[in-house]
Amino acid sequence: MDREQALKELELLQKKLYAYNAASSSLFLDGVTVAPGDTAEGRGVALGILAGEEQKLMTGTEMGELLDFLSSGMEELTDLQQRQVKELKRHYEEQKRIPAEEYMEYTMLTNEAGDIWHRAKEASDFEMFRPALEKLVDMKRKFAGYYAPEKKPYDALLDRYERGADMEYLDHFFTVLKERLVPLIHAAGEAEQVDDSFLHLHYPAEIQRKFSDYLMEVMGLDRNHCTIGETEHPFTLEFNNKDVRITTNYCEDSLADSMYSVIHEGGHALYELGISDELAYTCLTGGVSMGVHESQSRFYENIIGRSRAFVSAIFPKMQEFFPEQLGNVTAEQMYRAVNKVEPSLIRTEADELTYCLHVLIRYEIEKQLIGGSLEVRDIPQEWNRLYQEYLGVTVPDDRRGCLQDSHWSGGDFGYFPSYALGSAYGAQMLKNMEKDIDVWGTVSKGDLSSVTGWLREKVHQYGSSREPGEIVANACGTFDPTVYTDYLTEKYSEIYGLKK
Ligand code: ZN
């Protein structure tokens, strides 16, 4: 075999992996949008087979031999080819270390646990979910040893969502957040409260749909490459850098819910659409990590979308869509309303300021759970204690407490911190962006093109062709969480009239 031939074969293998992925994504999308209710079983069979085929391709002898051959002459390869070989080798070796029967068992367990979690949440009964969660924690600790035997189990899991992040990095990050944000939240709670009652009038879904179209236009999302659908939980699904789908959920007694979901998912979509063509159909396409992905979605949602400049720019149009509801409201009142701070029970409904504390609570629990110092049965008690301590709210039941998120039922331990990291990366990106372009001058005209252009150059184009840490350094410089806490302190002290 010569090098050219090997590279061609590797290209084809990656395209096959892409094809399996695209097929699975289509089935998933169909299931959550237009498929009839009682059809999940058949899709489950198809998805299981596709996942198995993908796994076979990824760990097969053909892949192994190609990677061995190509890595023996790395210096002859271009930068991108080297990256591909390294990335595939990482996946290959990791998947090889997991015994096939344990992988099957784990897949089945997460399928089952998803169902159990749903029912337990509805019944608000943690005990119902406990046995499945205990098995998941055991398996995940074991898997951590396969992923990275040299690391502590929780570090190995964290690394899968944000390569390079570990407990030492996150302990420092969250300590800064806790020290600076808890007092700020308490002070905002004691100040005069913001009126957001006009956000909860009747907002017909039919008009909200048109408003979503408008928001996508402002964001510069090309409708020939990105559509919007409706699902229970909003998400972004990328097929490739020319085909991305976002979804939202219309709530007729709340304007901000869907509005900020569209902007958030739109931020994920812009990232995927901005990835360089030369990475298409390889393992290097797609956003690089959960943290970097969230840095983009939360940048558009909060830093831009909840800024005074952006709200003022789109407000006249909002009044056109909703003249009865917003006719007597000012842009300034809208700005304050969408930034109302209110310690609450549910993470996905939290405001920009309290959001990270919801994440911190999950981080502290996961750290103890995977580390072995907290038993699954003690989760509700620990959860409720931390909500009281950090947010001052009393958790009335498990449905609104430790059963609210689906992540653990899918085995996703170590995922949550990326939401908070992403928010913090975004604040640092803003600071650097302000040095290069007139961010607020353009945003106040409703023009996001230079903001997106900056992010495309510093982040989007690279896809996964660089390590998350390199991309963060490229856009943020040295990571410093105080930039984020300063940004929040500045913004919310002004809104709530607090002394800094
Ligand atoms: Zn997101």
Overall radius of gyration:
23 Å
State the helical fraction: 55-70%
Determine the number of helices (DSSP H or I, runs of at least 4 residues). 21
Strand order of the largest sheet: 1-3-2
What is the 3D form? globular
Describe the biggest sheet?
3 strands, mixed
Mean pLDDT: 95
Low-confidence segments, given as residue ranges, are none
Structural class: mainly alpha
The percent range for strand residues is under 5%
The SSE string, one letter per element, is: HHHHHHHHHEEEHHHHHHHHHHHH
- Ends apart, CA distance between termini: 67 Å
Structure overview:
This protein is mainly α. Helix content is about 65%, strand content about 5%. The protein contains 21 helices and 3 strands. α1 runs antiparallel to α2, α3 packs across α4 and α15 packs across α17. The model has no long low-confidence stretch (mean pLDDT about 95). Zinc ion binds next to α10 and α11. The site of zinc ion has 4 residues, from α10 and α11.
Question: Quick summary of this structure?
Answer:
The chain is mainly α.
Question: What is this structure's SSE topology?
Answer:
Blueprint: H1 3-32, H2 40-59, H3 61-71, H4 79-97, H5 100-123, H6 126-147, H7 153-161, H8 167-190, H9 205-219, E1 226-230, E2 236-240, E3 243-248, H10 255-273, H11 290-304, H12 308-321, H13 323-326, H14 331-337, H15 355-371, H16 379-391, H17 417-436, H18 439-443, H19 449-458, H20 468-476, H21 481-496
Parallel strand pairs: 1-3
Antiparallel strand pairs: 2-3
Helix pairs in contact: 1-2, 1-3, 3-4, 5-6, 6-7, 8-15, 8-21, 9-10, 10-11, 11-17, 12-14, 15-16, 15-17, 17-21
The site of zinc ion has 4 residues, from helix 10 and helix 11.
